[in-house]
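Hey team,

Filing this mostly as a record. A colleague (T.K.) asked me to run one chain through the structure pipeline before their review meeting, and I want the input and output archived in the tracker in case anyone asks later how it was produced. No errors, nothing strange. Just documentation.

Input sequence:
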Amino acid sequence: MAATPITGATKPHHLADAGTTLDITLTTEKTDSLEAPCVTRWPTFFQSEP
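Output structure:
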């Protein structure tokens, strides 16, 4: 058995809050950055052995 949280609106005012997010407008720069492919990088906190 796995415990999984149920996400989403649980109260009526949550729906109203979520609906206001539809009023945003993204710039071309922002949509380009969101649509750009993800680049896998080595974590910066890893250090090689001396």
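Quick notes for T.K.: Helices lie at 12-20, 28-35. The mean pLDDT is 79.
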